[in-house]
Design brief:
Organism: Pigmentiphaga humi
Largest sheet: 10 strands, mixed
Number of helices: 12
Strand content: 15-25%
Protein name: Tripartite tricarboxylate transporter family receptor
Order of helices and strands: HEHEHEHHEHEHEHEHEEHHEH
Keywords: Receptor, Signal
Structural class: alpha/beta
InterPro entries: BUG, Bug_dom1
Helix content: 40-55%
Distance between the termini: 55 Å
Number of domains: 2
Family: Belongs to the UPF0065 (bug) family.
Mean pLDDT: 90
Number of strands: 10
CATH superfamily of the largest domain: Bordetella uptake gene, domain 1
Low-confidence stretches: 1-19
């Protein structure tokens, strides 16, 4: 019996060690929980491509969109914990969606492992370049003059971006109508066409259109101005003190993934984030690169998961 127990223990140890030392020995799949073209998609593909260049790994990106990003997260939760399946998560589908969607059954702090924090970004309120709204004050004045007539688009109901719009409505005491889309690209096309008055967006999703002069940024919702758009004021600066809503992005793997594999991926991503060319590429998309240990990232996830329960309840937003 003793020999059998020892043999099993040695096999388990050998399997874990071999798994870590030989990792990765085949392509890694990176699930992207939103459609192509949005902020999550842009940053996911950037990281996947640079991991391939720096580490000579094959990282295959796959969009698995729907239900505010929860479909992609649920697929990652169900995946085998071998290190060959990971997902780019953010506040939307990890710390907000579980309190909004009755269909969500995962607990991100229990069912996923926080692998590597990639970066964070403010949220923008934008309008078409030729819009009648020259400032956020114009929006508020028009909304108060004609309640319910102004519309704003978002990448989907239940996202942090959607909630940023709802929290601003409450802070400003105005009634503007939310139009949810399936991803940032669809919302962007409609705001550019003038079919919706405003869009609440991540900076990466809107950056190219701002730089081309097609979108006018009115405000950022974070506590500090975006270093990518230093001339755009914060909502707090415009009279709504204490207003602060932003989002972060990071890589996750299914619970049970060997610690050695998590450490390997964390080190590889953090090495990328230390490279000026990677940081510049992330910054060019309107996000801020920020490396963390997996433990630090797990602590951030847990803190936000607890904090946003109260925010969602206070906003009174639910999604079927």
């Amino acid at each position: 019996m003793f020999r059998k127990v020892c043999a099993v223990a040695m096999l388990a140890f050998a399997a874990t060690g071999a798994c870590a030392q030989g990792y990765p020995s085949k392509p890694i799949r990176l699930l992207i929980p939103f459609p192509p073209g949005g902020g999550t998609d842009i940053l996911s593909r950037l990281i996947a491509n640079r991991l391939g260049e720096a580490e000579k790994w094959t990282v295959v990106s796959e969009n698995r969109a729907g239900a505010g990003g929860t479909i992609g997260i649920a697929a990652a939760v169900r995946a085998a914990p071998t290190g060959y399946e990971m997902v780019m998560g953010q506040k939307d589908n990890l710390v907000v969606a579980p309190y909004l969607y009755k269909s969500v059954t995962y607990d991100p702090t229990r069912d996923l492992v926080a692998v590597a924090h990639v970066g964070y970004t403010p949220i923008l309120i934008v309008t078409q370049a030729n819009s009648r709204f020259k400032s956020l004050a114009d929006v508020v004045a028009a909304a108060k003059a004609a309640p319910g007539t102004i519309t704003y688009g978002s990448p989907g109901s239940g996202t942090t971006i959607h909630l940023a719009g709802e929290i601003f409505k409450d802070a400003a005491g105005i009634d503007i109508r939310h139009i949810p889309y399936k991803g940032s690209n669809a919302a962007m096309m409609d705001v550019l066409a003038g079919n919706v008055d405003l869009m609440v967006s991540s900076v990466p999703s809107a950056m190219a259109q701002i730089q081309s002069g097609k979108l006018r940024p009115l405000a950022v919702t974070s506590a500090r101005r975006s270093t990518s758009l230093p001339d755009v004021p914060t909502v707090a600066e415009l009279g709504y003190k204490g207003f602060d809503v932003s989002t972060w992005y990071g890589l996750f793997m299914p619970a049970g993934t060997p610690k050695e594999i998590v450490a390997t991926m964390n080190q590889a991503v953090n090495k990328l984030l230390a490279m000026p060319e990677t940081r510049d590429a992330i910054h060019a998309q309107g996000a801020e690169a920020q490396a963390m240990s997996s433990d630090e990232f797990a602590a951030l996830l847990k803190a936000d998961y607890q904090k946003w329960k109260g925010i969602v309840q206070a906003a009174g937003v639910t999604v079927e």
